[in-house]
Design goal:
554 residues, 11 helices, seven-stranded mixed β-sheet
């Protein structure tokens, strides 16, 4: 009996159209069976004489609501008169006013939190408004318990501000929509369902998670649903029906299951934006001493035609003004982070094997032929400056890296190939994003994904699938060793490395019989070419890639 679902109907602004609403409810119940309760958000009463006359019929008992109906308080000064006080009470048979704010727990164990009215913009607050004290009291009453995980349902009149971030957009002007206080409330109470109204719109946001993937224990998802007014002329949805098993009665594993379309929480965005506008406590690009940088023009020894980029960079000390920039030339981008010792992959380093370079981006990244490549078109995307992993990259570097990814996908597609990317942030000091093409006729993306999963399991590793809308930075803080795969479908696989990770794992999977079927090439050392072979391979790849190279246009 404990797992019997509660059947719930939720309605948007009624605005006094009680008979219309209850007729619709009766029709639904006749067709699908009895519901346990009806919840009304937004403005329940109307301010017209017709609405007042209709309400009197229910108030006097001449008419009766066909279902237990629970309503929020006034959302405007005109309807305050219909509520005797702020504590909640039965206004008519089967119609109960919940109150200004509070928690309602049904016999089933279903827990419902609610806040009536709109956010107060002045003190003292009008009767149809709530204050920050109301919200604080509500949050404290719930979260003070160590067993608090969230509430089943949250009812508010106003929308939470910014609820559309990371999700699908509502069909209304969002600039003046919603309350930031309600957004904060929803973030703290973690409702499984949050309903609101007042905007005259129907909007069902994609479900969002209440935890940080791989950093916090999995929690249930939240769904926000806004409903339109009853019997609205645009015929927007105003009634929502669903079944819900109270949280307290659910198996924890079932409760935290994540749907495939789940997104990040929209309420963590504002804090993130604030921190992004502030200078971080330490930025290697600002702190490192400048070094003499070695840049080169790809138009000469590599044998290609003149690149025409106009991007040959000077070394420090020549033709510069007192500010360190070329006189009469545009200001150069800020200095890249530099290694503390020798690095084979920093473009500024004398150790870099420049004959392997395929393309140099505008300021942030470059493309190079892989040493001992799996296939002739196996390349690396690398940052020009010294960054250890993707999660440490600045936004400018990420942007250019994405441009290279996009260009390579188009390039491989023209060759009848799909693109697999992987990164091993373990026992390496400079980020190398490996990009390996796999012929379309060899296997499907699902085959590649399964190959990674199976071979990981065989080595007692569990590859996690990262949800589609999740940024790698959100699950892998800087300094944490990890292995990461990105498939051409957009699917991403992640493993947080503990110890003894096989260094050639990515190559081994792709070289396996299930994918490229070239197992002898799993170790790059077994695939090494002579200098002359590398130069010839790179020249061929550079010429082939040139039509897709965005750097040619800069």
């Amino acid at each position: 009996m404990g797992e019997q679902p509660v059947r719930v109907l939720v309605c948007g602004d009624v605005e006094g159209r009680l008979s219309c609403l209850f007729s619709r409810v009766q029709a639904i119940q006749k067709k699908t069976g009895q519901f346990d309760l009806l919840l009304c958000v937004g403005e329940f009463f109307g301010a017209t004489p017709e609405a007042e006359a209709e309400w009197q019929q229910y108030k006097t008992g001449a008419k009766k609501a066909p279902i237990h109906t629970y309503i929020l308080g006034a959302a405007s000064q005109e309807t305050v008169k219909n509520f005797p006080n702020s504590d909640g009470s039965e206004l008519a048979e089967n119609i109960t006013y919940l109150g200004r704010r509070g928690v309602f727990t049904g016999a089933s164990g279903l827990q419902l939190a609610y806040v009536s009215g709109q956010e107060a913009l002045q003190e003292p607050a009008p009767a149809h408004c709530f204050t920050s004290k109301d919200l604080s009291a509500l949050v404290t009453s719930l979260t003070s318990s160590s067993k608090f995980r969230g509430v089943d349902i949250l009812l508010t009149s106003q929308w939470p501000q910014g609820v559309w971030h990371y999700g699908n957009n509502p069909e209304l002007n969002t600039k003046s929509c919603g309350s930031s206080s309600i957004a904060s409330l929803a973030d703290k109470l973690k409702p499984r369902y949050h309903f609101a109204a007042l905007e005259g719109a129907h909007y069902e946001r994609l479900p969002y998670r209440n935890h940080v993937v791989l950093q916090e224990n999995a929690q249930h998802v939240s769904r926000f649903i806004a409903l339109a007014a009853v019997n609205n002329a645009a015929k927007r949805k105003y009634l929502y029906a669903f079944n819900i098993i109270p949280m307290k009665n659910m198996d924890p594993t079932e409760l935290v299951k994540q749907p495939p379309d789940v997104t990040e929480s929209p309420y963590r965005r504002s804090a993130k934006d604030k921190t992004e506008t502030q200078k971080p406590p330490f930025n290697a690009a600002d702190e490192e001493e400048p070094v003499h940088q070695f840049f080169f023009d790809l138009s000469r020894k590599q044998g290609g035609a003149s690149r025409g980029h106009g991007r040959k960079r000077p070394s420090d000390g020549d033709g510069r003004g007192q500010d360190g920039h070329h006189q009469g030339q545009p200001k150069q981008p800020r200095r890249h982070p530099q290694p503390t010792g020798p690095c084979w992959f920093c473009l500024a380093s004398p150790q870099v094997e420049k004959h392997l370079v395929v393309s140099i981006g505008t300021h942030q990244c470059y493309l190079a032929l892989a040493k001992g490549p799996l296939t002739p078109r196996h390349v690396l995307i690398l940052p020009i400056g010294h960054y250890q992993s993707v999660v440490e990259l600045s936004s400018e570097v990420v942007e250019e890296m994405e441009k290279y990814k996009s260009a390579l996908r188009d390039f491989y597609k023209s060759k009848g190939e799909r693109c697999v990317l992987f990164e091993r942030n373990y026992r390496s000091q400079h980020l190398q994003l490996q990009v390996v093409p796999v012929p379309l006729n060899h296997c499907t993306t699902e085959d590649i994904k399964e190959a990674f999963m199976v071979q990981a399991q065989e080595q007692n590793m569990e590859l996690m699938e990262i949800p589609q809308h999740t940024d790698l930075k959100q699950i892998a803080p800087p300094g944490i060793p990890y292995f990461y795969v990105e498939l051409d479908s957009g699917e991403k696989l992640f493993y947080r490395i503990q110890k003894n990770f096989p260094l050639q794992f990515g190559r081994e999977v792709l070289a396996s019989e299930a994918v490229l079927n070239i197992p002898t090439r799993a170790d790059w050392k077994e695939c090494k070419q002579s200098r002359e072979e590398e130069e010839e391979s790179c020249k061929q790849l550079r010429d082939d890639f040139q039509p897709y190279d965005f750097a040619w246009d800069d």
